[in-house]
Amino acid sequence: MSEARTRLLNTATGLFYVEGIRAVGVDRVIAEAQVTRATLYRHFPSKDDLIVAYLTQADEAIRAQVTAARAEDATPDDIIRAVSRSIADDIQSAGFRGCAFLNAAAEYPDPAFAVHQAVLTHRQWFLETMTELFTNLGKIDAEPAARHFVMLRDGAMAAGCLTDPKPVCETFLRGVEGLLTYRSREP
Length: 187
Known about the structure:
Layout (H helix, E strand, L loop, with lengths): L2 H17 L6 H8 L3 H7 L3 H24 L5 H16 L8 H8 L6 H23 L5 H19 L4 H17 L6
């Protein structure tokens, strides 16, 4: 990745996340990244391409967190706990403004848009990953448990930027513990 592309993407990432995607124009990204318009369009043919790159970078960061949790040579439930802790840590980090994917979906609700498709691709991967992790626990209701986990995460991400994130994260982590011990039916 070229230095200019990295600077553009990092600048756009900061601005899109903090101020909103539609609120930030390409002129602002160009000015703050200190590049020319031609440089922007050489790397990103449209603003939508820049937005998709921003979401792809966020997706890669979350995938890396899951990979790190799996690399700890832990039990399946400890891996789920590690993923949950990384989510809670993100929610409690300085400058947290919600889930980049939920924010993008709110700004680009049309499922035909590339931005919305990038959101759906990430969410499908995350649901499949959580389903796999719950399956590794031996849960016969792994898919419903994974959907429940994703809903808990979505709620925590939304609430964590609206109020004190500490009790939100405590509630989220308690909910995850409930999922780890609850079975809708015995095997």
